[in-house]
Amino acid sequence: MTIRRIRLFGDPVLRERAAPVVDFDAELRALVTDLVDTMVDADGGGIAAPQIGVGLRVFTYRLGDEIGHVVNPTVEFVGDEEQLAEEGCLSIPGLPFDCRRHLQVVTTGFTMDGEPLRLDGNGRLSQIIQHETDHLDGILFVDRLDPATRRAAEEAIRAAEWSGGVVPEIRVSPHAPLRPGGLHPGR
After folding, report:
1. Is the residue at 39 inside a domain?
2. Does 135 carry a binding-site annotation?
3. Is 89 within any annotated ligand binding site?
4. Which CATH number goes with the domain that contains 76?
5. Phi-psi region of 91 (alpha: psi -120 to 50; beta: other; left: phi over 0)
6. Would 179 be classed as within a structural domain?
7. What is the residue range of 59's domain?
8. Is 180 contained in some domain?
9. How many angstroms separate the CA atoms of 10 and 20, rounded?
10. pTM
11. For 11-42, how does the pLDDT look when each residue is reduced to its tens digit (9 = 90+)?
């Protein structure tokens, strides 16, 4: 069992796009094991490799007793239904905020052994998949918050004991934002 240090908001690795996995080897299997061990130890619903300082496109998830992982994920949104639900992050500990996400997604990728994988996510699993895939693109959930909630998040992060009173820039997600009513702008 290897518990890795979780990188906190402000660490530059969290803002970098992770590289695709090309070698499905013992090193990748060890990384997936470390991610699972770290996620479970921190009582998280998911964790992405950049959160432990590894710039590869891998994440693990936990929903109830189900624990899984996806290597090189791609996400497809199913329909236009959305959910607004409380979301937190192991890299922004103790500060959950309501975040708008798609209700359903289909994720394809690979297992740590290189086998093709398809994961249908609905509700909470959809939220976890989107959150962790965002991490692989250098996006944090606070980037997806509406402006008023984003300001509240900045204040809460600044006040958090772990932040040292400094709030690095929270930026707006480069992906098309969701808006109330269920459609992306321009659709």
Report:
1. yes
2. yes
3. yes
4. 3.90.45.10
5. alpha
6. no
7. 12-162
8. no
9. 23
10. 0.90
11. 999 999 999 999 999 999 999 999 999 999 99
155 flagged as catalytic: no
Residue length of the chain: 187
Q: pLDDT tens for residues 105-121?
A: 999 999 999 999 999 99
Q: Of 82, 132, 155, 161, which is the active-site residue?
A: 132
3-state secondary structure of 149: helix
What are the distances in angstroms from CA 187 to CA 84, 85, 91, 177?
A: 20, 23, 33, 12
User: Quick one: pLDDT at residue 174?
Assistant: 62
Task: Categorize the per-residue pLDDT at 62 as very low, low, confident or very high, splitting at 50, 70 and 90.
Answer: very high
Residue that is written with structure tokens 């109830």 in the block: 64
3-state secondary structure of 164: coil
How many domains is the chain built from?
1
Q: Cα(2)–Cα(8) distance, rounded to whole angstroms?
A: 19
In a domain, 183, yes or no: no
SS3 for 50-81 is: HHHCCCECEEEEEECCEEEEEEEEEEEECCCC
Q: Extract the tokens encoding 184.
A: 């992306």
- pLDDT bracket for residue 183 (50, 70, 90): very low
